[in-house]
């Protein structure tokens, strides 16, 4: 994938939606290799976006000018892989969004405990 910035910038973010089919990418800025980034995540294939792991690669320290960004799926052991780019731009989040079970299970446990204590108070 080739991206050309529309405006001068000194930083750029790429957000990946990752699952088991995703893998290594090489990111070039103005022809120079800036980062080799692993987008793999332990998530089953063909899951909706809310079940995938969202990973953000933030590139900083660039000269304040227009840039050409090239993203190449490099695979592992010579095997190609898929890379899912969810979005890219100047102001992307720089944190990873946790997988759904990471949030849902603790919330369900807290609600369950509150329900048990409520029943005890009624008796």
UniProtKB/TrEMBL annotation:
InterPro entries: PEF_CTERM_C (IPR017474)
Transmembrane feature ranges: 100-117
Residue stretches making up the PEF-CTERM protein sorting domain: 97-120
Alphabetized NCBIfam families for the sequence: arch_PEF_CTERM (TIGR03024)
Pfam families: PEF-CTERM_ARCH (PF26596)
Swiss-Prot/TrEMBL keywords: Membrane, Transmembrane, Transmembrane helix
Gene3D superfamilies per UniProt: Galactose-binding domain-like (2.60.120.260)
Chain coiled-coil ranges: none
Protein's name according to its UniProt entry: PEF-CTERM sorting domain-containing protein
Keyword Membrane belongs to the record: yes
N-terminal signal peptide: none
């Amino acid at each position: 994938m080739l991206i050309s910035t529309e405006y001068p910038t000194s930083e750029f973010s790429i957000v990946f939606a990752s699952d088991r089919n995703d893998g290594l990418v090489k990111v070039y800025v103005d022809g120079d290799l800036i980062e080799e980034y692993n987008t793999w995540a332990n998530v089953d294939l063909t899951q909706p976006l809310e079940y995938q792991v969202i990973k953000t690669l933030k590139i900083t320290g660039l000269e304040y000018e227009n840039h050409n960004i090239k993203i190449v799926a490099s695979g592992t052991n010579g095997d190609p892989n898929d890379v899912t780019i969810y979005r890219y731009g100047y102001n992307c989040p720089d944190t990873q969004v946790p997988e759904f079970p990471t949030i849902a299970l603790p919330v369900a446990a807290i609600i369950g405990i509150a329900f048990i204590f409520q029943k005890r108070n009624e008796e």
